[in-house]
Amino acid sequence: MGECWGAGTATFMILGNICTRSCSFCAVATGRPTEYDIDEPYRVAEAVRLMGVKHCVITSVNRDELKDKGARVWAATIREVKRQNPQTTIETLIPDFKAHWDLLYMVLDERPDVVSHNMETVERLYRIVRPQAKYSRSLEQIKRTAEYGLRTKSGAMMGCGETPEEVLKLIDDLHENQCHVLTLGQYLQPTKMHLPVAEFVHPDQFKAWETAGLAKGFLHVESGPMVRSSYHAEKHLL
């Protein structure tokens, strides 16, 4: 937090604190959300202004129960942050909108500086780690975002049971689908009820994946045990 906040970077989660999905790694509560605050975009933008944030990362829970999956609040939040803070750069860490691509484009139309969508894990482990997501759907979302002309970013957790070869395939798949920035970090189990850690990956292996990603052609790779999706996010603009 000290590194991020010292660089003027802060992350905000919108659309409440209850998610409609039940990913096995995530500590966010699962259920049917009751909160839908149409004034949230203004309050986020005001917080960015009062805090003097230079680079604003915005993420959200999944709101699959909503017809628009939360896309309108997403778009309004980006728009209002820009209005109140014209010098602040914006990264959005967005859900997959259940492949309703018109909703994706509603968010992309607001043209955030970086659009992130995390793969989280390798293809084989999706049913365990992300049971309500699809590997191919997430790759397609990244490709569509790149084709729209925006900088793309994705991240994954290591130590969930994947093999080094599967991670290299993930890196290949992301590159082929025009992902520009990659983050890889160590998974840590939030509670005893969540997916157990299969392995604590050695830092040398993280370094090898960083080297592989840069050799493949990624513009920026953050790879290390303590790396998280928004770690050094302000550097991913370059």
What would your notes on this structure say?
The structure is a single chain. The chain has 238 residues and is an alpha/beta fold. Helix 2 runs parallel beside helix 3 and helix 7 runs parallel beside helix 8. The mean pLDDT is 96. The protein starts with a helix and ends in a 15-residue tail after the last strand. The strands form two sheets. Strands 1-4-5-6-7-8-9 form a seven-stranded parallel β-sheet. The protein has a two-stranded parallel sheet with strand order 2-3. It is 35% helix and 18% strand.
Q: Keywords for this structure?
A:
238 residues, alpha/beta, TIM Barrel, 7-stranded parallel sheet, two-stranded parallel ribbon, 8 helices, 35% helix
> Helical proportion?
25-40%
Per the CATH scheme, the topology name is TIM Barrel
Number of helices: 8
Count the domains. 1
Q: How are the SSEs placed, and which strands pair?
A:
Layout: H1 2-6, E1 9-14, E2 18-19, E3 29-30, H2 40-51, E4 55-60, H3 71-84, E5 89-93, H4 101-108, E6 114-116, H5 126-129, H6 135-147, E7 151-158, H7 164-176, E8 181-186, H8 203-216, E9 220-223
Parallel strand pairs: 1-4, 2-3, 4-5, 5-6, 6-7, 7-8, 8-9
Helix pairs in contact: 2-3, 3-4, 7-8
Provide a quick synopsis of the model.
The protein has helices at residues 2-6, 40-51, 71-84, 101-108, 126-129, 135-147, 164-176, 203-216; strands at residues 9-14, 18-19, 29-30, 55-60, 89-93, 114-116, 151-158, 181-186, 220-223.
